[in-house]
Amino acid sequence: MAADADRPMLLTNIGELTTNVAVDGDPCGTLRDAAVLVHDGLIAWTGSADAVPPSPDALVVDAGGRAVIPGFVDSHTHLVFGGDRAEEFAARMAGERYAAGGIRTTVAATRAASDDDLRDRLAALVAECRAQGTTTVEIKTGYGLDVATERRLARLAAEVTDEVTFLGAHVVAPEYADRADEYVSLVTGVMLATVAPHARWIDVFCEDGAFTAEQSRRVLAAGRAAGLGIRVHGNQLGFGDGVGLAVELGAAAVDHCTYLADADVAALAASDTVATLLPGVEFSTRQPYPDARRLLDAGVTVALASDCNPGSSYTSSMPLMIALAVREMGMTPSEAVWAATAGGARALRRTDVGVVAPGARADLVLLDAPTRVHLAYRPGVPLVRRVWKDGRQLPGSGTAQGQPTMRALANPPVW
Ligand SMILES: [Zn+2]
């Protein structure tokens, strides 16, 4: 049975296949009565179930007429942390307004946690993501805010994903209260030099209560000089400079985008910077949702991500993001599914995920539903039936016979 992991797989009798290879005005590249052939962890072929190339060795999986989509690409999370903030959430639901300073509570708990504690908690969250169909996840540091802890967080994140982001500039470290410029010098100096070998990206929280535009510019410029790609937290709590700075510096993505001036929207539309919307935050903080319709109508590329973190959005559910985007932000179900898959891939400048096309990674989700619309139409219902990452069915997903569940458990794929 272990050899099944290396056998080709034919996933057939797919009622609706979302490829995200645009055809005839359909960005989702929808195929009906389709099949997917997987070989060596990659998509080898897609097309009509009536026209499958000869594949006598393939393990055949019958989708039973259900829908298949690319695995979700969650391009914005903060999964490595200690403690939780359930009491802060309860207080906020009782009427207290969210302020960025709550991050410092998690910083104290994270610094106090051992590597083993943090690793175990991260593994549990990663398993939670996978069970809900996420096959690529970005993970940020940012709950250490000192050199040693930021390095620890980046190392731990790198154990489970290639998409690690250095977010030393999350908030000013408590030791540097009233000395923000000195803290920025630490972030752009020793801290960056120590963390950069473990990271692909640098990020900054450009917002009142966090970092000014000039401080943010220093952080991003230093990160770029160290060879990291650029991402920005901006325009979450009010109008500001985050979007303009992100576009000016050629960031891969600017995330939140809740408060946008017309000039911000125009700048995004004229750029290849992705606007990543994080509706779990607005849901969990009772703030106004970003206007996805306005961005899409202007021609901006939009991604959806969970922002999973213990303060402002303690959910890893991409199906929930899709439901919120459709219900609250003016997106169609197809636009939201695209944004949670192909959009996330664009936000990470990846072409090998977020699509079901020959040569792409075989990251697939079989839904317990006839169409992708059900992800928004049936909010809160666990519709993810099976998940494959690099062609291997992930543990905890599905109950099919002949699947390499134990082997996958013993040898988890890195993402
Ligand atoms: Zn965030």
From TrEMBL:
Positions of the UniProt region annotated as Disordered: 394-415
Domain Amidohydrolase-related, first and last residues per copy: 68-391
Gene Ontology, cellular component aspect: cytoplasm
Biological pathway: Amino-acid degradation; L-histidine degradation into L-glutamate; N-formimidoyl-L-glutamate from L-histidine: step 3/3
Residues the record lists as binding 4-imidazolone-5-propanoate: R85, Y143, H170, Q236, S312
UniProt xrefs under InterPro entries: Amidohydro-rel, HutI, Metal-dep_hydrolase_composite, Metal_Hydrolase
Classification lineage: Bacteria, Bacillati, Actinomycetota, Actinomycetes, Micrococcales
Source species: Microbacterium enclense
Name of the molecule in the record: Imidazolonepropionase
Protein EC: 3.5.2.7
PANTHER family for the chain: IMIDAZOLONEPROPIONASE (PTHR42752), IMIDAZOLONEPROPIONASE-RELATED (PTHR42752:SF1)
Coiled-coil blocks: none
Pfam family name, one: Amidohydro_1
GO molecular function, one term: imidazolonepropionase activity
Binding-site residues, Zn(2+): H76, H78, H233, D307
